[in-house]
Design a protein that fits this description.
Layout: H1 2-16, E1 29-35, E2 40-49, E3 52-61, H2 64-77, H3 82-96, H4 119-145
Antiparallel strand pairs: 1-2, 2-3
Helix pairs in contact: 1-2, 2-4, 3-4
The structure holds zinc ion.
Length: 146
Amino acid sequence: MQLDELYRQVIMDHYQHPRNQGELEDGALSVDLRNPSCGDEITLQMVVQDDVVTDVRFKGSGCSISMASASMMSEAIQGKTVEEAIVLAEKFRAMMRGESVDTEELGDLEALQGVSKFPARIKCATLAWQALERASRNVDASNHSS
Ligand code: ZN
């Protein structure tokens, strides 16, 4: 119970004070995604240099779960390689499936663990991660074309 309360506070903190909110200059990868079942919308932007995520910004509107997850994700992937970010996305998805994962790397994201018990909200929590995965595929595409 106390852990739930702590998690709720972490989620509300990210929702009320989102990290890395805003927009990047032209040239950043940009992905818009919506979660129609809840009405969440997100625009994720990131800059990748030498395969490292050097900057991340997001903006959007939606429920506390979707916005908190985006805020936490933006913190978690900053400075990681694209591959590491994808590994983290897979780990987050596993947590959402209710699998037990090593939460050490997840940081604040661990607070979203309880969402796995509410299937209707899982899409809210994974929206930002879907955007990340889509943006990462665009990194590959732009590498191949250059
Ligand atoms: Zn939502």
